[in-house]
Amino acid sequence: MKRYYIGVDVGSISTNLAVIDEERNIIETVYIRTEGKPIASVQRGILIMRDKLRKKFSEDIEISGAGATGSARLLTGVIIGADIVRNEITAHSLASLHVRDDIQTVIEIGGQDSKIIIIRNGVAIDFAMNTVCAAGTGSFLDQQARRLQIPIEEFGDLALQSDEPVSIAGRCTVFAESDMIHKTQLGHAIPDIIRGLCEALVRNYLNNVGKGKEILAPIMFQGGVAANKGIQEAFKRALNLDVYVPEHYDVMGAIGAAFLAQEVMDVNPRPSNFYGWDIPELIFESKGFECKDCPNHCEVVEIKENNNLIARWGSRCGKWDDLSVIREKAVSIT
Q1: Strand arrangement of the beta sheet that strand 284-290 belongs to
Q2: Contact by Cβ (8 Å): 259, 24
């Protein structure tokens, strides 16, 4: 019987899922908005994936391994019953190398953060992340598209229509927005303003996230912003190098998490911890409290499933972690 593996990547803006088979073929993917509700978005993502797979296979397929990644990876791992929980750098690197084994630089720009991964000889040797300022991320581009009343899908195409980009301050979202408003009031054409913004945001990325990094080709561009042709072209011009956008650019983290699940289950064969396709019907509750037993005043999070406590974490001393599913199931976490 063919084996299938699922990966779930939950970030601040999007929740992404991917199911692969044992030959690492991509069977199905799901990309939805997190909308500030990671538990609900995971359940909705599983529901959508379940429906897609039922249409394809006419029945529920058995999952032999589950992986979680993203900024909400610990919570995601608890909700789905992950066999492995790993950071985004590992997941994105693995997925990128699967697509192209000669890749040397990965540029990833998501909804509210961005990262760069330096790969040499098939190994990630360096990385940097920007999670402080949202300039250049998907949420900022969405905001500017709404302000200009332009569908975000047309944003990049408009940038390509420009031959004379205007100069936009891209080091800060506030400055960039006010500069765009000022240039609009001066009468500059919208395509010129948008192209100027794309170039400013790429310049900001290279001067911050990419600062001090040796950016070598082949370069892979992924994350939701990779769909923006204006940003794609701005990177090509700034680097004077070609930039490759993979087919599944928006769910690479989830694909990498699925690969990681396959690897860990191959090394240690056993039944998967995955809770199954009825996850959308389960009732999860999360709440936090402050431990006052010492001066640390740790903020502890606890998760209940159908009113049963299934996980706690957050204490520095480990006092409140003894019920964590992460420890009970010996899930690998990094």
Answers
A1: 284-290, 299-305, 308-313
A2: yes
* Candidate from 156-160, 178-182, 190-194, 294-298 with smallest mean pLDDT: 178-182
- As a whole number of angstroms, the distance between CA 104 and CA 250 comes to 19
Q: Which two three-digit tokens encode residue 18?
A: 């991917």
CATH of range 4-90+253-281+321-333; options 3.90.1150.180, 3.30.420.40, 1.20.120.80, 3.90.1010.10: 3.30.420.40
**Residue closest to 172 by CA, chosen among 154, 151, 197:** 197
| Dist CA 260 CA 262 (whole Å) | 5
In the DSSP assignment, the letter for residue 195 is: H
The pLDDT of residue 2: 92
Topology of the domain covering 101-245: Nucleotidyltransferase; domain 5 (3.30.420)
Cα–Cα distance measured from residue 269 to residue 266, given in angstroms and rounded to the nearest whole number? 6
3-class DSSP string for 243-258: EECCCCCCCHHHHHHH
Mean pLDDT of 1-8: 95
Neighbour-count burial of 55, counting CB atoms closer than 10 A to its CB (0-12 exposed, 13-18 middle, 19+ buried): exposed
Q: Are 263 and 237 in contact (CB under 8 A)?
A: no
For residue 107, which of 9, 247, 206, 234 has the smallest C-alpha distance?
A: 206
Residues 228 and 141 sit within 8 Å (Cβ to Cβ): yes
How confident is residue 320, by pLDDT bands cut at 50, 70 and 90? confident
pLDDT of residue 292 exceeding 80, the answer is yes
Please state, in angstroms and rounded to a whole number, the distance separating the CA atoms of residues 145 and 152.
Answer: 6
Q: What is the pLDDT of residue 327?
A: 41
